[in-house]
């Protein structure tokens, strides 16, 4: 099965199944012993979100339109 076949099969899944697959794939990237508990993930992402929002409000960074982000992602996946 090619990567394109795999992506097509994954995209044919219902949204809940795609979310479950995504979760399992992300978990597979974690190193053994580095797994964070749910509360730790929430705290980490909350802090990250607050920091990014502050940077945007202070003009330190600018947002990127989602269309541009997704186009870049699709380009990386297809290369």
Write the layout of secondary structure elements.
Blueprint: H1 3-11, H2 15-28, H3 38-57, H4 66-78
N-to-C SSE string, H for helix and E for strand: HHHH
Query: How many angstroms does the end-to-end distance come to?
Result: 17 Å
- Would you identify the regions where 5 or more consecutive residues have pLDDT less than 50? none
- The tally of strands reads 0
Number of helices: 4
Structural class: mainly alpha
Mean pLDDT: 88
Strand content: under 5%
Radius of gyration, in angstroms, nearest whole number: 17 Å
Question: What best-fitting shape do the alpha-carbon axes yield?
Answer: extended
State the share of residues found in helices, binned by percent.
over 70%
Describe the structure.
The chain is mainly alpha-helical and 79 residues long. The chain has a domain at 1-31. 71% of the residues lie in helices and 0% in strands. It contains 4 helices and no strands. The protein has helices at 3-11, 15-28, 38-57, 66-78. The chain is extended. The protein starts with a helix and ends with a helix. The mean pLDDT is 88.
Supply database-style keywords:
79 residues, mainly alpha, 0% strand, extended
